[in-house]
Design brief:
By secondary structure, this protein is mostly helical. The protein has 6 helices and no strands. The chain has one domain (9-144). The protein has helices at 9-20, 25-34, 43-73, 77-98, 105-131, 137-144. Helix 3 (43-73) packs antiparallel against helix 4 (77-98). The longest helix is centred in the middle third of the chain and has 31 residues, at 43-73. The chain starts with 8 loop residues before the first helix and ends in a 6-residue tail after the last helix. The mean pLDDT is 94.
């Protein structure tokens, strides 16, 4: 199901809702990348707020899913790596989704930094947590499969 590229705020908002709900991510992202908007006072603020709220919701959901996956893995290497890689894939997608051509370059760079900084914080927290594990296996996995490597 392809979506038309958005041109007005209402269309953008509708696609952001689909993105937030994980409704057909590939098609939604393709439409968002082709969208245009008049970047003017009022619209820009609402657009930015909606986009950042959407991306934050997805990051929180990804973090929650990762925590559950880590708990379910029971320390087994395969499921641990899968959990880390799934988180990395989602963060890479969100980094792509927040970097939309319709956004002015300077603002786009700031938005991309939001996702990158969150990924860096998650990686740092994982490394700190893994240091407490006695065997060193988790620490090695976390270093070799970085969530911020995108």
């Amino acid at each position: 199901m392809a979506f038309n590229p958005p041109t007005i705020y209402a269309e953008w908002s509708e696609l952001f809702d689909k993105l937030k709900d994980k409704t057909n991510d590939a098609d939604v992202l393709a439409a968002l990348k082709q969208g245009t908007i008049a970047w003017q006072s009022g619209v820009a603020e609402r657009f930015s707020q909606k986009l950042i709220t959407t991306i934050n919701a997805r990051m929180n959901a990804a973090s929650d899913k990762f925590q559950k996956d880590m708990t379910r893995s029971n320390g087994q290497e395969g499921p641990l790596v899968q959990a880390i890689l799934a988180l990395r894939k989602e963060l890479a997608f969100l980094s792509d989704a927040i970097s939309l051509p319709a956004i002015p370059e300077k603002t786009r760079a700031q938005y991309s930094a939001l996702v990158r900084n969150q990924a860096d914080k998650m990686q740092q927290a994982l490394e700190e947590s893994a240091r407490k594990e006695r065997t060193g296996k988790l620490s090695s996995l976390v270093r070799n499969h970085k969530v911020n490597a995108f």
